[in-house]
Amino acid sequence: YVRFMLNAMSKLGCNIDDAKHTVCEPCNGKLLGGFDPDKKEMFLCENTIYNQQAMDDVLTHELIHAYDYCRVKYDPDNLKHLACTEIRAANLSGDCFFWKENIGRFQFGWKAHQQKCVKTRAVNSILAVRNVSRQRAEETVDSVFDACFNDTDPFERIPP
């Protein structure tokens, strides 16, 4: 989905120059990557990404944040905006694909699996970058969840 996202960004007039907009750096904790809207830069964590598939997944996730920033100029200091882009990235990047959760992470479930996974990952992403309580992160995610979960742009639907 990396090429798809790069093409979608280009259609919006937000071209990505790898040398200018992507950096690799060491990271702390369980972080795999991130998007810095102020620098318009994605960073990949060189010490936690272990193979090409993981890098593609992280790039897709961060490209969704970059796409959201390009598309709606979200305010990174607004917790609702952050929650929305985290919901979209978890939903559309493959973070919560059924096979990944059930086989890769042993998080078994059928009913509303995608929604539960997206909420959990969005809350955890907020907690990783903002100094807020879990309760506030959960309440914020819940307050924007339906609209943001159902916004699949630039995809026609949640990718398989």
Characterise the protein shown here:
The chain is mainly α. The protein has one domain (1-150). 56% of the residues lie in helices and 8% in strands. The chain is built from 7 helices and 3 strands; from the N terminus they run H-H-E-E-E-H-H-H-H-H. It has helices at residues 2-11, 18-21, 52-72, 79-92, 98-104, 113-129, 134-149; strands spanning 22-25, 33-36, 41-45. Strands 1-3-2 form a 3-stranded mixed sheet. The protein is globular. Its EC number is 3.4.24.-. Keywords: Hydrolase, Metal-binding, Metalloprotease, Protease. Belongs to the peptidase M76 family.
Short structural summary:
It holds the Pfam family Peptidase_M76. The protein has 7 helices and 3 strands; from the N terminus they run ααβββααααα.
Largest sheet: 3 strands, mixed
The first-to-last residue Cα distance is 11 Å
Q: Indicate the percent of residues in helices.
A: 55-70%
The shape, in one word, is globular
Please indicate the percent range of residues in DSSP E strands (runs of 2 or more): 5-15%
The helix count comes to: 7
DSSP summary, beta strand count: 3
Strand order of the largest sheet: 1-3-2
Which class of secondary structure composition applies to the elements? mainly alpha
Order of helices and strands: HHEEEHHHHH
Radius of gyration: 15 Å
Low-confidence stretches: 101-106
Please state the average pLDDT score.
89
Number of domains: 1
Give the tags:
160 residues, mainly alpha, 3-stranded mixed sheet, 56% helix
Secondary structure layout plus pairing:
Layout: H1 2-11, H2 18-21, E1 22-25, E2 33-36, E3 41-45, H3 52-72, H4 79-92, H5 98-104, H6 113-129, H7 134-149
Helix pairs in contact: 1-3, 3-4, 4-6, 4-7, 6-7
